From TrEMBL:
Pfam family name, one: SQS_PSY
Domain of life of the organism encoding this protein: Bacteria
InterPro entries referenced in this protein's UniProt entry, alphabetically: Isoprenoid_synthase_dom_sf, Squ/phyt_synthse, Squalene/phytoene_synthase_CS, Trans_IPPS_bact-type, Trans_IPPS_HH
The protein's name in its UniProt record: Phytoene/squalene synthase family protein
Organism: Catellatospora aurea
Pathway: Carotenoid biosynthesis; phytoene biosynthesis
Keyword entries, A-Z: Transferase
Signal peptide from the UniProt entry: none
SUPFAM superfamilies with a match to the protein in the record: Terpenoid synthases
């Protein structure tokens, strides 16, 4: 492997290890030759996310320009142009190896651009439109690497798992997203439980959720678990190591919702984290084929 390409894969792996601990742990269960390609996809998503999320560096226009320039370099690479970048060579190599659909990457980059201008979503269909690019396509991009025997049957469960993971992140990170002036909980859900964006901000300042906010979070957890349930049949469509990897990620991410419930649905008192001991126990469950029933 050329030195530049090997370095790009290492850069993606470092991003994955630093920012996606649970997912990184699950990826260790894949055959060694597949892991760098998963790191590449994670690195691609994380780097774009970093551009739009670093609200303390530059204006929105600056971040939009950086995202546009980086996206154009990537698209040029897809056309066969030479690309100089810390991690894009690894991503482009993974696209080539697995013949990944460029349209999925375009959808992802479109959603990242939305984060620069869209602060809230009126209802769940509107949020789903955003998550189509930010989450569902990640599931479909992973499928060729995971290697299901029936890719067509596995496609929708993979999309559903991407949505489930994304909603789990949204619920865990309500306070962090508010600090970036974003609310990923649908506005009509807030209204249903008598909550406003101002109420969320007050709760973030106080470090505790109101009863109304707790009811809202409980409702959104139920919605997230609906996506987990829709994703579960896809686990059985994956071969050996891929099934173990995804099953482990399924269990560990789902456990974040358990931690939120254990905290009485208060996402402002502390960030929901699955402790090391429980992660190890869930890893053991993943290895022995015990998937969550929900």
């Amino acid at each position: 492997m050329p030195a530049e390409l090997a370095q790009a894969y290492r850069r993606c792996r470092d991003l994955h290890r630093s920012h996606g601990r649970s997912y990184f742990l699950a990826t260790r269960l894949l055959p060694a030759w597949k892991r760098p390609h998963v790191h590449a996809l994670y690195g691609f998503a994380r780097y774009a996310d970093e551009i739009v999320d670093r609200t303390h560096t530059g204006t929105p226009a600056d971040r939009a320009r950086r995202l546009r320039d980086w996206s154009e370099r990537f698209l040029a690479g897809l056309r066969g142009d030479s690309v100089t970048d810390p991690l894009l060579p690894a991503v482009l190599h993974t696209v080539e190896v697995f013949d990944l659909d460029p349209a999925d990457f375009a959808a992802f980059l479109h959603s990242m651009a939305m984060d620069l201008t869209v602060r809230e979503y009126a209802d769940y269909p509107a949020l789903l439109s955003y998550m189509e690019g930010s989450a569902a396509v990640i599931g479909t991009l992973m499928l060729p690497i995971l290697g299901p025997a029936d890719p067509a049957a596995a496609r929708e469960p993979a999309r559903q798992l991407g949505l489930a993971f994304q909603l789990t992140n949204f619920l865990r990170d309500v306070a962090e997203d508010l600090a970036r002036d974003r609310v990923y909980l649908p506005q009509d859900d807030l209204a249903r439980f008598g909550v406003s964006t101002a109420d969320l901000r007050s709760a973030a300042v106080a470090g505790r959720a109101t009863p109304q906010i707790k009811s809202l979070i409980a409702y959104e957890i139920t919605r997230a678990r609906t996506h987990y349930a829709a994703a579960r049949p896809g686990l059985d469509l994956l071969p050996g190591a891929s099934r173990t990897c995804v099953r482990t990620a399924y269990l560990v991410y789902g456990a974040i919702l358990d931690e939120i419930e254990r905290a009485d649905h208060d996402v402002f008192a502390r960030r929901a984290v699955v402790g090391r001991g429980r992660r190890i126990a869930l890893l053991a469950r993943g290895l022995t084929g015990q998937a969550a029933g929900r």
